């Protein structure tokens, strides 16, 4: 499973990278705004800065909602760095744009996916990644993990190369369960990744080892 970090914060990206397990980054306009990154030139520079840290796929989202402007923005983003993946919403024009980018050899991430049917359309159009939103489905009483499992099964049935990128992952159990059901990628905040390190028995066991060592060398 690939680990992506869902942030535009450079310090968090560096910390995840230094841990040695980071495979890529996902961003969106909301995450950029959270870091105070505003204005076309600043946003583009920020994407380049991220690409300097991580040697992996970096999802950069288009703002436009119509086909022509999605294509314009996506081509500009793709020119920034070979690792840029153009993030496109699951809409009629978004699917058309994914097909266009695929034909041009530009990698894509179809975002805001909430049904298996949407994921099937994205794969048919040639998306590199499809991003079902686990947590947001859970928020409205639906089973986000069941959707991941459905998509994984459909893609396996027909040999689609599109990778299932589990998004809106809120906690460690989400991440582990996504791994159990075969998601190719998970994207989540830094605290979810570092949360995998933690267990009280690890802490108490280490404390005992250190205490015993101290006694033995007293």
From TrEMBL:
InterPro entries hit by this protein: Aldolase_TIM, TAL/FSA, Transaldolase_3B, Transaldolase_3B/F6P_aldolase, Transaldolase_AS, TSA/FSA_arc/bac
Recorded family membership: Belongs to the transaldolase family. Type 3B subfamily.
Coiled-coil regions, chain positions: none
GO cellular component, one term: cytoplasm
Active site: 87
Protein species of origin: Rufibacter hautae
Gene: fsa
Pfam families noted in UniProt: TAL_FSA
Catalyses which reaction(s): D-sedoheptulose 7-phosphate + D-glyceraldehyde 3-phosphate = D-erythrose 4-phosphate + beta-D-fructose 6-phosphate
Pathway it works in: Carbohydrate degradation; pentose phosphate pathway; D-glyceraldehyde 3-phosphate and beta-D-fructose 6-phosphate from D-ribose 5-phosphate and D-xylulose 5-phosphate (non-oxidative stage): step 2/3
HAMAP family xref list: Transaldolase_3b (MF_00494)
Entry's Gene Ontology BP terms: carbohydrate metabolic process; ketone catabolic process; pentose-phosphate shunt
This protein's name: Probable transaldolase
EC number: 2.2.1.2
Functional note: Transaldolase is important for the balance of metabolites in the pentose-phosphate pathway.
Subcellular location: Cytoplasm
Main location: cytoplasm
GO MF term set: aldehyde-lyase activity; transaldolase activity
């Amino acid at each position: 499973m690939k680990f992506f970090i869902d942030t535009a914060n450079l310090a968090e990206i560096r910390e995840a990278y230094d841990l040695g397990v980071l495979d890529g980054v996902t961003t969106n306009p909301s995450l950029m705004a959270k870091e105070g990154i505003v204005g076309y030139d600043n946003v583009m520079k920020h994407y380049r800065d991220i690409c300097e840290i991580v040697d992996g796929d970096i999802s950069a989202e288009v703002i436009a909602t119509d086909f022509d402007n999605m294509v314009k923005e996506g081509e500009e983003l793709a020119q920034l760095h070979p690792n840029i993946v153009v993030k496109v919403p699951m809409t009629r024009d978004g699917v058309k744009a994914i097909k266009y980018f695929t034909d041009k050899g530009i990698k894509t991430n179809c975002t805001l996916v909430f049904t298996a049917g949407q994921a099937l359309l994205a794969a048919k159009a040639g998306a590199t990644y499809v991003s079902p939103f686990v947590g947001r489905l859970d928020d409205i009483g639906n089973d986000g993990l069941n959707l991941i499992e459905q998509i994984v099964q459909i893609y396996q049935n027909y040999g689609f190369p599109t990778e299932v990128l589990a998004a809106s992952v809120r906690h460690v159990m989400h991440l582990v369960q996504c791994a159990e059901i075969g998601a190719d990628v998970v994207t989540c905040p830094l605290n979810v990744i570092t949360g995998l390190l933690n267990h009280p028995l690890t802490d108490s066991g280490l404390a005992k080892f250190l205490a015993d060592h101290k006694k033995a060398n007293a």
